[in-house]
């Protein structure tokens, strides 16, 4: 006999612009849905939030939804503006296949409803191929096939489907689910937007590196500029303005100002210095084999790990050679720094001298893992060795620059660096950030401590 502790627990929820959004991993959400924890499921992204603000019927349909999942970088940024961090981005295109794999393992069937004529059938063939054992109970398009709702309901019920995917687009699919879910026999009904188009191959997904950087919206805008320009350019601005107002209402004023400044400056700089990115990438590739960007796990705000981006300034065997160089550190304390580190490439020394290797961290700032100003993020091994007083560094979002950087960088010992960072955390303000950014230019030009 199973005890209550053996069953999946309902996902935690965060209030994002007045919408209760699930804060969970994919596995937690899938397990909860498949035990019947929720019957109707929709997703919330920036576009959905904008539609909700002007469409009271859609807003009401969302309120009656059993579970709302977070979709995209916009919702994540809105959460961070109020001091929260979503566990995972549960966008429909990645989440739904995981749900269907688990459903297939349990012998459950799915009905695909929506898309242009032929799309649901093509999506069904693809899903049956990539998810062995998945039972497709039936398909129906979202045009002529959706003309008679009662006929649609009868068709779905007649198929015996356990799960129904409704892909009619926002807000039509949410309104349809809200109106007809009670007439369906299926145990789970999801509004999945463009999912069927992706599965059918009608719309190409962004490359993995673009998705990892959480910039898939830029890819979709480039693919369909005429259709999506208003949604992503004007719409994203409207969404961020709403998120800022919501954060201010919740008492996160200075944090909103800081995050808004980070977003504006990082996005502007990424556009302006794109030619520099290209030139540096070419030089790195010309000198040594290996990736242009170096990704490393660092510890961010409240101890949350994230992947930091840098231009690669070392040879690819740098990590394996660390042990033999540990004793040659020029800095006392936990953090390793060597003025004559033999692992650094020739172009890498130039990049470090002028802090050019740090420029890709503007992507981290845009994503919200980092800020323009804050304590430098430590390695997991370094944070594990922190004395108790150093843990206060983790109370702020880590930054590209900060008090330590403008005071000498690697010439500053660990203990003094901790004192500086703790002082910043305790007295941080937007005006202090502006002052430190001004001083950063002088520190970069002087090159002091840059090695």
UniProtKB/TrEMBL annotation:
Pfam families referenced in this protein's UniProt entry, alphabetically: Bac_transf, Glyco_tran_WecG
InterPro entries assigned to the protein according to its UniProt record, in alphabetical order: Bact_transf, WecG_TagA_CpsF
Alphabetized UniProt keyword annotations: Exopolysaccharide synthesis, Transferase
CDD domains, sorted: Glyco_transf_WecG_TagA (cd06533)
This protein's record includes keyword Amino-acid biosynthesis: no
GO MF: phosphotransferase activity, for other substituted phosphate groups
Gene Ontology BP, a term: polysaccharide biosynthetic process
Residue ranges annotated for the Bacterial sugar transferase domain, each copy included: 258-445
Source organism, top-level taxon: Bacteria
Family to which this protein belongs: Belongs to the bacterial sugar transferase family.
Protein name: WecB/TagA/CpsF family glycosyl transferase
Organism (species): Actibacterium atlanticum
């Amino acid at each position: 006999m199973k005890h209550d502790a053996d069953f999946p627990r309902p996902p935690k929820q965060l209030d994002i612009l007045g919408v209760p959004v699930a804060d969970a991993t994919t596995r937690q959400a899938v397990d909860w849905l498949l035990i019947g924890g929720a019957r109707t499921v929709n997703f919330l992204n920036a576009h959905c939030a904008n539609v909700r603000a002007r469409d009271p019927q859609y807003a009401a349909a969302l309120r009656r939804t059993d579970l709302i999942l977070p979709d995209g970088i916009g919702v994540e940024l809105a959460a961070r503006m109020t001091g929260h961090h979503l566990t995972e981005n549960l966008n429909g295109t990645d989440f739904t296949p995981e749900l269907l794999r688990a459903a297939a393992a349990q012998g459950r069937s799915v009905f695909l409803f929506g898309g242009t004529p032929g799309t649901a059938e093509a999506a069904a063939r693809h899903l049956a191929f990539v998810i062995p054992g998945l039972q497709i109970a039936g398909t129906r398009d979202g045009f002529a096939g959706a003309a008679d709702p009662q006929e649609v309901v009868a068709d779905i019920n007649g198929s015996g489907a356990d799960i129904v995917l409704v892909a009619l687009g926002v807000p039509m699919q949410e309104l349809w689910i809200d109106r007809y879910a009670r007439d369906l026999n299926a145990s789970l009904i999801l509004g999945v937007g463009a999912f069927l188009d992706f599965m059918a191959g009608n719309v190409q997904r962004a490359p993995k590196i673009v998705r990892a950087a959480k910039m898939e919206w830029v890819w979709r805008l480039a693919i369909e500029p005429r259709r999506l320009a208003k949604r992503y350019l004007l719409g994203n601005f409207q969404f961020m303005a709403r998120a800022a107002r919501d954060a201010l209402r919740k008492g996160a004023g200075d944090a909103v100002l800081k995050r808004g400044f980070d977003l504006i400056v990082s996005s502007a700089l990424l556009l302006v210095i794109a030619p520099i990115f290209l030139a540096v990438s070419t030089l790195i590739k010309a000198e040594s084999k290996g990736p242009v960007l170096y990704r490393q796990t660092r510890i961010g705000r409240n101890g949350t790990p994230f992947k930091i981006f840098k231009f690669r300034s070392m040879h690819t065997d740098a990590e394996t050679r660390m042990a033999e160089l540990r004793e040659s550190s020029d800095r006392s304390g936990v953090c390793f720094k060597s003025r004559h580190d033999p692992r650094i490439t020739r172009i890498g020394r130039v990049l470090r001298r002028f802090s050019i290797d740090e420029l890709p961290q503007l992507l981290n700032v845009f994503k919200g893992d980092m800020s323009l100003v804050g304590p430098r993020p430590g390695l997991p091994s370094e944070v594990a060795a922190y004395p108790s007083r150093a843990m206060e560094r983790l109370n702020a979002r880590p930054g590209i620059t900060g008090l330590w950087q403008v005071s000498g960088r690697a010439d500053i010992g660990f203990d003094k660096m901790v004192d500086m960072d703790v002082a910043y955390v305790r007295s941080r303000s937007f005006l202090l950030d502006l002052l430190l950014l001004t001083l950063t230019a002088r520190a970069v030009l002087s090159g002091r401590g840059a090695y």
